[in-house]
Amino acid sequence: MIVDLPDTTVSKVSKKLSKLREEGGVVALGRVLTLVIQTDFRRIEEVVEAANASSRTHPARVIVVADEVDVPGEARLDAQIRVGGDAGASEVLILRAYGGLAQSLNGLVGGLLLPDAPIVVWWPNSCPDAPAESDLGQIATRRITDSANQADPQEYLKQLAKNYQPGDGDMAWTRLTLWRSQLASLFDRVSDKKIEKVEIIGSELSPSADLLAAWFRVKLAVPTKISRKHKGRNVLGIGGVKIHYEGGELKMMRSAEVAKIKQTGMPSASILLPRRSVVDCLVEEMRFMGPDETYAEILKGGFR
User: Fold this and answer.
1) Can you give the three-state secondary structure of the chain, one letter per residue?
2) In angstroms, what CA-CA distances link 111 with 11, 63, 76, 103, 167?
3) Are residues 129 and 223 located together in one domain of the fold?
4) 283 in any annotated domain
5) Which H/E stretch holds residue 173?
6) Do 75 and 183 fall within a single domain?
7) For residue 104, what are the contacts with CB-CB under 8 A and spacing of at least 6?
8) Range of the domain at 241
């Protein structure tokens, strides 16, 4: 069910949601958190789709705040409520804020939060340099940014490191979960050898490559460099990792969703290494409400 509420107020939205519960049996008892998403008008459907898919694992009240500060005219709030089949395992509130209302996001969502439930804020496109100090970040238990969608991903990581607070997280780090798991297993093969250097093949547009390099430097204390091209060609995301050790090389190179593993003097092997979707990353980010201590260590140790 979709209910449109043009030119409305937060109070009216809250009352309408309560009425829908009474009339249709929609309940909030199974919601485990409130997911607040700040985006722009053009990405509303995209982020709602991701939130609905993630709600199968983490039932939530989803509040999408789409703000347009520069739209001419008086301040106005248009809202939409989605429940039932149009909201997955969630209930979705879409707030389109115009003019001055778009400058006070905390006030917009304050009356719509689930009581006594954790609050996760996700910025899927434009992100604040200091998430915990932002209007929405101040009320959040967890704050999720996406450095890959910023104009200068590497510079943005430096800002995140400078302004880090417990509860901050970034999609670029979450996209590395499978890589880190497989690479940890690979290092067991060469645990008795002297590592000379590690080379990461990764795009300039992939902050995940920079975070992976920082992971090697901080956790393993080995010289690490990033090559932005492979065989003279640009790569998409992370193309592979080469571990150079005394007397040989161990490398894992990804093509499509498969990574090939080759080591000097050993037979080759292949493993499945798919690119993680937004939904996969969002589900993982919402799984733990506490601070990600490893992310904090890598961010502060590798980018300050």
Assistant:
1) CEEEECCCCHHHHHHHHHHHHHHHCCCCCCCCEEEEEEECHHHHHHHHHHHHHHCCCCCEEEEEEEEECCCCCCCEEEEEEECHHHCCCCEEEEEEEEHHHHHCHHHHHHCCCCCCCCEEEECCCCCCCCHHHCCCHHHCCEEEECHHHCCCHHHHHHHHHHHCCCCEEEHHHHCCHHHHHHHHHHHHHCCCCCEEEEEEEECCCCHHHHHHHHHHHHHHCCCEEEECEECCEECCCEEEEEEEECCEEEEEEEECCEEEEEECCCCCEEEECCCCCHHHHHHHHCCCCCCCHHHHHHHHHHHC
2) 7, 11, 17, 16, 23
3) no
4) no
5) helix 171-174
6) no
7) 135
8) 177-272
State in Å, rounded, how far the first CA of the chain is from the last one.
48
* Pair (207, 249) in one structural domain: yes
Percent of the chain's residues with pLDDT above 90: 63
pLDDT in tens, 16-75: 988 887 776 555 556 788 999 999 888 899 999 999 988 888 888 999 998 765 655 678
Q: What is the pLDDT of residues 260-292, one digit of tens each?
A: 999 999 999 999 999 999 999 999 998 888 899
pTM: 0.91
Say if CB 160 and CB 299 are below 8 A apart.
Answer: yes
Which of 143, 170, 197 is the last residue in one of the domains?
170
Q: Which two tokens stand for residue 184?
A: 């940890």
Q: Are residues 123 and 203 in the same domain?
A: no
Last residue of a domain, one of 170, 191, 210: 170
Number of structural domains found in the chain: 2
CA distance 28 to 79: 19
Let me know if residue 294 belongs to a domain. Answer: no
Residues 19, 117 within the same domain: yes
